[in-house]
């Protein structure tokens, strides 16, 4: 396990594509192996989560132990024509979160998410959405504790939204 004192945080960059592919793949396979890296590249509905573009406003936070990334949270402004699973509108970025299995259960996911939500507030972003699969109660519990609520009419899709205080 990583010592919390040895964890550093930095901004996500376009150079972190391999990290985003890994994070996307592991998020897709949260309940067991269903997809592989080739699927992330071949399927546009998966690949879009690894296509970070700061020019469109995308932002993110990487947690590192030494030089090794052990977690990442990212928010993408995916347009309607290339919408992600948690898309609500073009003004609301879609949030994703991943923590390496060996680093889970110690609050790192919460820390990354809180940093990402602070970054959203700092950018005057009124809301962030996400999608969590129905059986993923652990993730759903974390998101609820951070202030995410089910989007009316989209609960079966697992779509949740966080709204910045005062928005």
Secondary structure: elements and pairs:
Elements: E1 7-11, H1 17-28, H2 37-42, H3 44-47, E2 59-65, E3 68-76, E4 94-99, H4 108-122, E5 127-131, H5 137-145, E6 149-150, E7 159-163
Antiparallel strand pairs: 1-2, 2-3, 3-4, 5-7, 6-7
What does this structure look like?
Keywords: Acyltransferase, Transferase. With 167 residues, the chain is of the alpha+beta class. It has a single domain, classed as 3-Layer(aba) Sandwich (Aminopeptidase). It is built from five helices and seven strands, in the order E-H-H-H-E-E-E-H-E-H-E-E. The chain has helices at residues 17-28, 37-42, 44-47, 108-122, 137-145, and strands at 7-11, 59-65, 68-76, 94-99, 127-131, 149-150, 159-163. The strands form two sheets. A four-stranded antiparallel β-sheet has the order 1-2-3-4, sandwiched between helices. The chain has a three-stranded antiparallel β-sheet with strand order 5-7-6, with no helix packed on it.
User: Oligomeric status of the shown chains?
Assistant: single chain
Average pLDDT rating = 94
Q: What is the name of the CATH topology?
A: Aminopeptidase
**Whole-number radius of gyration?**
15 Å
| DSSP E strands, number | 7
Characterize the largest beta sheet: strand count, sense, and whether it forms a barrel: 4 strands, antiparallel
How far apart are the termini?
A: 38 Å
Percentage of β-strand residues = 15-25%
The CATH class is identified as: Alpha Beta
Pfam families: Acetyltransf_1
Keywords: Acyltransferase, Transferase
Domain N-acetyltransferase: 7-165
Protein name: GNAT family N-acetyltransferase
